[in-house]
Prior knowledge:
globular; binds BIS(adenosine)-5'-pentaphosphate; adenylate kinase
Amino acid sequence: AKPSPLRVIIAGAPASGKGTQCQLITQKYGLVHIAAGDLLRAEVAEGSENGKQAKEYMEKGLLVPDDIVVMMVRDRLSQPDSQQNGWLLDGYPRSSSQATALKKFGFHPNVFILLEVSDDIVVERVVGRRLDPVTGKIYHLKYSPPETEEIAARLTQRFDDTVDRVKLRLRTHRQNVDAVLSMYEDITIKVNGNVSKEDVFAQINNALTKLLD
Ligand code: AP5
């Protein structure tokens, strides 16, 4: 019988490199990338009622209430592609209530990857981050500069990527991470996220390869 597909959670401070690693993981493992922050930003861009409410919390660096986030993630996880190819959940769960909901809906990860990055690196990464609205690719002015002038000219910045807001986001992360970790202790892999994106990926790749064996 075909082995069941991988089910991965990736967690870490803001700008610890979750999205960057998810692009590398999906390229190699074909998992469906589900990022809570991206789903929320799509609602904000659409101008839906949920999006309007969510934006107020995101601007303050606070967790968006469960009544908006929990069902949104559950619906995406339940789609046939996630079930067939496996999933890579990015930035969810961020509280014990979200972890409990995930369990209740029957979604059980094989591994919980925690990216560990120091605070000063987080701030530097946030300030230099840019996004390509055409391809969705994540850049950094210093560490992953755009390949061409044309791409450079169209890059955008996220509304919550300022020094003040990242400090608030870091505080929210610190307040919640231990409660989430305690629910996944037996499947947690801690990864040093302070090194280059290739070196971070090597650690993750190693862990995922072992899991598949
Ligand atoms: P979300 O979008 O999830 O933001 P976040 O957790 O703050 O994480 P980021 O997306 O900022 O960073 P990342 O870790 O993906 O880093 P990246 O790879 O881009 O959430 C935003 C908001 O939505 C939250 O504040 C909250 O309000 C709400 N929200 C989200 N999920 C929620 C939930 N479950 N419940 C309630 N509310 C929720 O990298 C950052 C930069 O560094 C890039 O420029 C990149 O090029 C560079 N970089 C990456 N890796 C390296 C490396 N190894 N070396 C050098 N540079 C690197």
